[in-house]
Amino acid sequence: MTDTQTNQAAPPEAVDKSLWQDFRESDFFYAFKRSPVALVSFAVVCILVLSAVFAPLIAPTNPFDPASLNLMNGFTPPLEPNAFTGDAFLMGTDDQGRDVFSTILYGMRISLFVGASAVLFAMVLGITLGLVSGYFGGWTETIIMRVADVQLTFPSILVAMLIFGIAKGFTPVEYRDQMAIWVLILAIGLSDWVQFARVVRGATLVEKSKDYVAAARLIGRSPWAIMLKHILPNALSPVLVIATISLALAIIAEATLSFLGVGAPPTQPSLGTLIRIGQGFLFSGEWWILFFPACTLLALALSVNLLGDWLRDALNPRLR
Amino acid sequence: MLAFVIRRVGQSILVLLIVGLVAFSMFRFVGDPIDNMLGQERTIEDVERLRAQLGLDQPFPVQYFRFLEGAIQGNFGVSYRQGREVSEILLERAPATLELAFVSGVLAIAIGIMLGVFTAIRRNGATAHIIMAASLIGVSLPTFLIGILLIYLFSVELGWLPSFGRGETVSIGDWWTTGFLTESGRKALILPAITLGLYQMTLIMRLVRSEMLEVLRQDYIRFARARGLKERAVNFHHALKNTMVPVVTVIGLQLGAIIAFAIITETVFQWPGVGLLFINAIQFVDIPVMAAYLMLISVMFVGINLLVDILYVFIDPRLRVDRTGGHS
What we know:
heterodimer, A: mainly alpha, B: mainly alpha, two-stranded antiparallel sheet, about 75% helix, transmembrane (chain B), ABC transporter permease subunit (chain B)
């Protein structure tokens, strides 16, 4: 943020009012209430995230428990009773009789976990490097920003693929499937830190020259305290916007990598893995194995994306 | 000017050296290359001989230098999985990717510019609104879902077009194979080309539209109209021409993206190109192929960026002042 105006939008905690009251009376909440796009996409995100978190409670079957599977239930179309067992499934079953609805709930957990962890990782890394390069300048800044520039010239999905490939190569063979999720988080996170670093560096450069930073330095606060407690809070709203949009991109990146077979392993299928599996049944007419995971992915990515777009406009003081 | 070019070239070479270091470390430290080349039955003498032969007993910088020397000559060793020269496999796969990239690039540029001009001129028309809305959906759909959707529509439901492979190909010269000359080859190209080009098409369309809107507002357009020139001449000769500088830049930068995104499209359609080779190499941890692809794509990206940067300075004289001096 280049000016202090934004601070008025989210005032510091008032003494006599609770934080929640403060939030409810803010411009931000007012704008949120008035925007149908924001309300709908927020509702969709909430429903999806909650159903992923509470998947073990909601899902009719546990798709990873072989005891709950009945091979006779294989290829049951949605909402039709199975010819042999008479069981009906909301979204049908796959070739092994797994309930598609349950696999989606569990798959969404992995997609969201990978996406959120990757963004968190990218955020911590980007904020740290951005603060350091903006505050200290000099050689540190040159090196960090050159690396950022070079990385920006490559599409991030390609960077993620390369990092995934290299990390997979370095992992011992017997741990590869176990580690795949963590390697995926590392790959997507490393491919995505540049945006955070650039924004935080820009904000740091602006704030650094202001009097309050000079005053903090004068009373002897350490550089890290100044960076984290004084400078960073002024850069939080653009960071929040980038984090939301990055989450949508990270979810899609994860799905793409898993779809290509270089992401989540079949033992821990994410939405992308489910779509990859479903594509195999496209020609034999079992459309539901592909259709429902694909729709879930779209709903998730689209609503997070719309929320991010709205957030960007709402937090931008120039558009008010 | 010369100082800028030299500095920029120097930076590019530095980047390539670093990428080379990454590729080389993969070679050197992922597994033991000797293990990968010799089978179970081997003697210590064999191992020592091969180690000396490959230069693995040399110090690290010497090995790195040798690797670079080999890479410049296109020598990346032997694929662990296929047991053939990597350069040979890459050459065999390159025509498929290049043809696909070429067709989708042409599609994206031609249709993108056309739609961009259309939506800018008929800014408030219903068709323009529909196109803009559709482009939003096109941007937010992941590439692989677009591919699957097209396969479902045109291969499964309608049965018009093949869903995988290149169709029949014809060999031209020593190593080039083309799908352009047979009917099945042309048919097989349609769906992958649309899948790959759609994102770039919407990008170009939106860019041309916003640039056109900017230009159409300027005085010389009004004067051209006042002179009684035909609407067509004004739109295409006066307006479109002046939007071309940023459009050409973006097209240049997107060239690399098309090759990179070809990985996804090639996997969806099982297109036998370099991208599919790379994905398979990651799945099977085929290090020489991965390293070669990494070097190849880096050379391409760094080269394109260098070219665009230098061309920009030539095209736009304003950039020359602050960049060449280095003191401003």
